[in-house]
Specification:
Length: 417
């Protein structure tokens, strides 16, 4: 990768081009570690475990009822059997059934030898030690066969996969107590700017509180990340250089916000160019035009813009997929829904826009979206109200109410309209 401090005539890079460049540069981390199942939610499994045994390991009852041998069933006639014992889940019935006998059995109990049917208790009457069965009693029902979930030797989960709660249940069901996972990414991030003040200190004139560090630490929260907040770095080239070099030594990924735009003092770009192979891109997107990406030593570096809305967009669209790739997750794109737009959207042709919106579900498969507020990129309130991006193509020149737009929800739970 070459150092490219962009001259102003350099053409804008599209979001797709930027994503492609990032995706083709990143090589997933290959190291793995053993992780206890209790800590494995959201981790990327690195080896595909095989079932050490059948699940279920023995045939068991799928219902509460009475277990019997279907040879006892008399077609089209009622019949009665002697109840000779009980099979509980975890406490099998010991013994063999003779002709004319059945057992009381509960869901999950091992089916005794010779039993091939469980008749639901609602279909059976009791008469002391006897159970009375109706005519046309179904045979061969309500028994879960050995291995009806998993056969011994089956691949339980194909790696790589980010483990879900159901994956953990499947592994636990097979008796697997720990797994091999890709190791976590070590990520350090800092804010740059002389105007930034940490929380807890009074605001001087011309200062603002550093909100990006809270935004970033929230966006970075993931089971595959070990995140360190490196604080605020003043607009000082020596300090910036030291911070970058130290961080690149300690972390797989270093993120900064602020100081990435053309209007900033030249030393920001110079410092980055001195420290590593970092490209500065002018992206054809709004918000979030400037983005720096590259390597400092062995560490990946992302220089995000300073404005909060631009941090939200560049993180979600470029950094998050890169981190997933680095962590070894299989490729996956954002959910995109077609929604009726209930606001008038201002836009001029040229750049792709990610406007901050509120999407609601009108009915299953029907969505409506409105603007979450003004679209200036310093507006923290709007980003806080928003639950989606409204994605507008570069050549779109505005949207009238009632037209359809593409939205990318931040979560899959949506409010009703
Ligand atoms: P910059 O990219 O450094 O020119 O910053 C662009 C805008 O984002 C300026 O208005 C900065 O004050 C603002 N900004 C930069 N960093 C932060 C931060 N950490 N928290 C909140 N606003 C910031
Ligand atoms: Mg700045």
């Amino acid at each position: 990768m070459t150092n490219l401090c962009y001259p102003s005539h350099k053409p804008l890079l599209s979001a797709e081009q930027a994503l492609e460049r990032i995706a083709s540069a990143i090589i997933p981390l290959s190291e793995t570690e053993t992780v206890a199942l209790s800590d494995a939610l959201g981790r990327v499994i690195a080896e595909s475990p095989q079932a050490p045994q059948d699940i279920p390991p023995q045939a068991n009852a799928a219902m509460d009822g009475y277990g019997l041998n279907s040879a006892q069933i008399l077609p089209s006639q009622t019949f009665r059997l002697h109840v000779v014992g009980t099979a509980w889940a975890g406490q099998p019935f010991v013994g063999e059934l003779a002709d004319g006998e059945c057992v009381r059995i509960f869901t999950g109990a091992v089916v005794p030898d010779g039993v091939d049917s469980v008749v639901q208790q609602e279909q059976v009457d009791r008469d002391g030690e006897f159970a009375l069965f109706g005519a046309d009693c179904p045979a061969g029902r309500n028994v879960r066969a050995i291995g009806s979930d998993v056969h011994r030797g089956d691949t339980l989960i194909s790696a790589p996969k980010k483990l879900t709660a159901s994956d953990l249940a499947l592994l636990a069901g097979a008796g697997i107590a720990d797994i091999r996972a890709r190791r976590r990414l070590n990520i350090g991030f800092f804010s740059t700017g002389d105007e930034l003040t940490p929380l807890g200190e009074p605001l001087g004139r011309g200062k603002i509180y550093d909100s990006n560090r809270y935004l970033l630490s929230g966006l970075l929260a993931d089971a595959n990340h070990r995140v360190v907040d490196l604080g605020i770095v003043r607009d000082d080239p020596a300090l910036l250089e030291q911070t970058l070099l130290d961080a690149a030594d300690r972390f797989d990924v270093v993120l900064s916000t602020g100081g990435a735009s053309v209007g900033d003092a030249d030393y920001v770009q110079e410092t980055l160019a001195k420290c590593g192979q970092v490209e500065f891109w002018k992206l054809a997107i709004k918000p979030g035009k400037p983005l720096a990406f590259g390597k400092i030593g062995a560490s990946w570096f992302f220089g995000l813009p300073g404005n909060p809305a631009a941090v939200l967009v560049t993180f979600r669209k470029f950094v998050a997929p890169a981190l997933r790739q680095l962590a070894g997750e299989p490729a996956a794109g954002p959910l995109q829904l077609l929604a009726r737009c209930d606001s008038r959207l201002k836009k001029s042709a040229g750049r792709q826009e990610y406007q901050r919106g509120i999407v609601s579900q009108i009915a299953p498969g029907q969505y409506a979206v409105k603007l979450a507020g003004g679209q200036e990129s310093h507006q923290l309130t709007v980003a806080s109200h928003a639950n989606c991006f409204i994605v507008l193509d570069a050549d779109c020149a505005g949207v009238k109410p009632g037209e359809s737009v593409i939205v990318e929800p931040f979560s899959t739970n949506l409010p009703p309209l």
